[in-house]
Inverse folding.
C-alpha cells in the first residue's frame, strides 16, 4: 500500500547551507568565467565597517576566505590582508562568519562592481 504522506524535504547539503548563510549575512556573488565561458569559481563579497570580506569557492574542499582593508585595489589578488584561511567549505565559512564585524585599522569599504569583458567583473573602490 502506498502512503499519501509527503516525504520530508531533503536537507540542504553543506555547500548550499554555507552559501545561504553568506547571503543572509549580506554577501553578494559574482561568478568569474574563463575564456570559454565556464564558471571557474563562486565568489562572495561583503564590504562593511571599513573592511572587505571575500570568499572564493573553487570546490567543496578548495575554499579561500580573506578579510582585507576596504581600500584594497584588487580584491581578487589583495596586497594587504587582515585575515585569511583556506580549506573545506564548512570550516572556512564558519571561521569567516565568526569574525567580528568591526576592524578599526582598515579603510572604507565603499565601491561597486563594474562589468568588464563578458563574464568578468571588477571591484572599483570609491575614491571620495
Amino acid at each position: 500500500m502506498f502512503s499519501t504522506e509527503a516525504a520530508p524535504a531533503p536537507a540542504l547539503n553543506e555547500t548550499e547551507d554555507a552559501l545561504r548563510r553568506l547571503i543572509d549575512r549580506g554577501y553578494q556573488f559574482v561568478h568569474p568565467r574563463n575564456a570559454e565561458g565556464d564558471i571557474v569559481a563562486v565568489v562572495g563579497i561583503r564590504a562593511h565597517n571599513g573592511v572587505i570580506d571575500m570568499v572564493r569557492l573553487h570546490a567543496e574542499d578548495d575554499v579561500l576566505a580573506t578579510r582585507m582593508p576596504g581600500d584594497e585595489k584588487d580584491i581578487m589578488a589583495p596586497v594587504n590582508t587582515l585575515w585569511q584561511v583556506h580549506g573545506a567549505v564548512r570550516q572556512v565559512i564558519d571561521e569567516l562568519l565568526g569574525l567580528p564585524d568591526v576592524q578599526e585599522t582598515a579603510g572604507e569599504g565603499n565601491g561597486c562592481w563594474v562589468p568588464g569583458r563578458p563574464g568578468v567583473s571588477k571591484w572599483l573602490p570609491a575614491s571620495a
User: Anything to note?
Assistant: The two ends are 70 Å apart (CA to CA). The longest helix spans residues 14-24. The chain has two helices and seven strands.
